[in-house]
Amino acid sequence: MINRQELIKKYLDFFKSKNHKEIPNARLIPENDPTVLFTTAGMHPLVPYLLGQPHPLGRRLCNVQKCVRTGDIEEVGDETHHTFFEMMGNWSLGDYFKKESINYSFEFLTNILKIPKENISVTCFAGDKNASKDNESAEMWKGLGIKKIKFLPKEDNWWGPAGKSGPCGPDTEIFSNNVEIWNNVFMQYNKTAEGKYIPLKQKNVDTGMGVERTLALLNNLKDNYMTDCFKPIIEKIEKSSGKKYGKNKEETKAMRIIADHIKASVFIIADGVAPSNKEQGYILRRLIRRAVRYGRDLEMTNFLMKVAEPIFVIYSDYENLQKNKKKILEELEREEVKFLETLEKGMNIFVKLTKDKKEINCKDAFLLYQSYGFPVEMIEEECLKRKIKFSKDKFENECRIHQETSRTASRGKFKSGLADNSEKTTRLHTASHLLLAALRIVLKDKNIIQKGSNITPQRLRLDFNFPRKMTDEEIKKTEEMVNSEISKSCRVIREEMSPNEARKKGAGGIFNEKYGDIVSVYTIEDFSKEICAGPHVKNTCEIGHFKIEKEESSSSGVRRIKAVVD
Ligand code: SER
Hints:
By secondary structure, this protein is of the alpha+beta class. The chain has helices at residues 4-17, 47-50, 98-112, 135-143, 154-157, 211-218, 231-241, 249-270, 279-297, 304-314, 319-323, 325-354, 362-372, 376-385, 392-410, 423-442, 472-487, 499-504, and strands spanning 21-22, 60-68, 84-93, 120-125, 148-152, 158-159, 166-176, 179-191, 197-210, 450-455, 460-465, 492-497, 519-524, 528-531, 546-555, 558-565. Serine (SER) binds at residues 41-43, 89, 159, 183, 185, 206-208.
């Protein structure tokens, strides 16, 4: 038996003995690289150096790198797919090339890991119009006594770039017992954004060896989830659910998805991401919510914190996990609770919409999905359970229509209130103006502006710039101030004017945004004046009682309030 930490140590010690310097395990969020959301390979942080910039630690480097790949998130559930994994790698930045790289790999596999050379097979690049056939690598493998050598096309034996452009090249892949364990890339090209392959001045080597699959292989396991990178998490899930791993196919799949997604989420949060609706935050949200959904299949709820515990033990060598443990667990729990609430609300609406029906209308299904955040998989499942027909095609068509409409809307063809003009959302729109005005007064900060707003029939959500958490006292005062304006029955007046005039009159708005020539300004007595597309009530007395449900961080320097009216 060899465990994760031993394998990593053997790898790094070996390459250090070959004069490689260990570089830090980089953050999962790539610095200065807008082409990808996450670090997907060890070479990622090295892109500038692969392109020719000198690296401060020299031309021979190695490390173990945490990676996230979400391209095949739906594939997770079998024995070998993961969104989070670790990759051991060694690099030559214009130093050694094919010969040494292949020799090092061979020596490490056969001498250090003691893999019999008869078990090793390799593939090499077959050549195409951009790069020639890699006979050199094949000859070297032959010279080392490897008999099973295949030439394969670009789809198999070419790696990179990691994003849309960057360094790439032909590779030779190394298999043991038919499992690909190591990939040696000979990075000689830079693929440009226009799709051209420009030869690089320096010839680099970039190799990557997956920790999980190598461990499975060395320990004669078919299933990566039985290695020490996963087993304690699976055991925790077994304990929490009372179900046995490996007994039932669907349940086993659910356990793998939960283990993988929670692990990826823990690492993503540790690197400073919070669940949100965009970019990394959106992927994180999706991972957490998928884990929760699969947990329901195992009859588990409120389990994320518990199942996450062993991750901090397995990866005791990651300081940022240990340091941020409390925050990570809180973030997981918060998103889980939020999602469970969403599901509960969605379920109530689902039941109402489908009462006595044999089929769910695609518009209703879309409403559930869009306005209530109810996952489409759950609509499918619930319909199946209740023998209600659900046409995924019609639903997808509805999504397309909506996308088209919102694109048109964002081109400015519709003025306002496109999505929902119900009486309830109108009341919430006006409430959010009162809230913004009250925040400026209570927090004694005239520069508070709206950073984002999202209104559903259930609640308003307002993001605003403010550097710290509000105190309970401040929240209470804000709530009282809004309710006091409501009870004064103030008229809400709409006027049209130029953005410039609006600014002069002290209306709130984001003035570096491109407004049209004429904007609507809504004024509520001398309490609030905002540029807004509406819709709004005519008098604040229509709003009803206002209540803040939550005050939390949205992103750095931005707070988020969720509030309701009844
Ligand atoms: N970049 C290559 C890979 O990800 C080798 O590290 O497979």
